[in-house]
Amino acid sequence: MAIRSPDSSDFLATKQPVDVEIEQLKAGDRIAWDRAYALLKAISLSVCCSTASTLNHQDHEDVAIAAITHVVDYVETVSSFEECKKLVVTISKNHLLDLLRQRGTTKAGGGKVESLDAKEGFDAADASQEPPDVLVARAERALIVSLALKQIPEKYRNVVADFYLKGLTQQEIANKRGLKIGSIGVYLKRGLEQLRKILKKDELLL
Fold this sequence. Notes:
The chain contains nine helices and no strands.
C-alpha cells in the first residue's frame, strides 16, 4: 500500500479523529492511511529526536520513512493500530542502531565497533529505555499540539515554536525575527491563548 505524505493540518480542520481503525487500513481507506502516516511519522520522529539527537533531520526523516514502510508490510497481520504504533517505535530504534553502527564502523575505518550504548549520538540512558507506550503517548501529544499550532497566526506561531520547541531565549527570538524584545512576551501570551482555544474547541486539550 503506497502512502502519500498528507497535509496533517487537515485533520483538525475537518475534526477527524486522530487515531485510526485497523480495519480501515486493511480495506485500503486513503483517509485512514493519511492519518496513519502522520501518526506513525510523528511517533518515529519522536523516537529519533529522543534517542539519537545528534543525527541530522534528514537522517531522522529517512529512519521514519523506512520504519513506516516496514510497518505497512505488517498491517494485515496485526489486530489493532496500537500494535502498529508500538511496532514503529521498535523498528525506528533498530534502524537508528543500524545507522549508528554503520557510521561508527566508517568512522573507525572498519575496525571493531564499541558498545552501542556508549556510541556518540545514541542517548541510551534516556528515552531508548522507555516503554513503547510512553513514546507513543508523547508523540501523539506532540502531533496534536503541532496540528493546532498550524492554525494560529504565523507571527504568533513562529514565536511560540521558537521558544517552546526550539528552546530559544526571548532575546534570541527578537534578534531572529527582527522584533522588539517587549513584543516577544506579548506574542507568546497571545499565541498560547489561541492555541488553548483551538485545543478546547476540538476537544483535544489533554
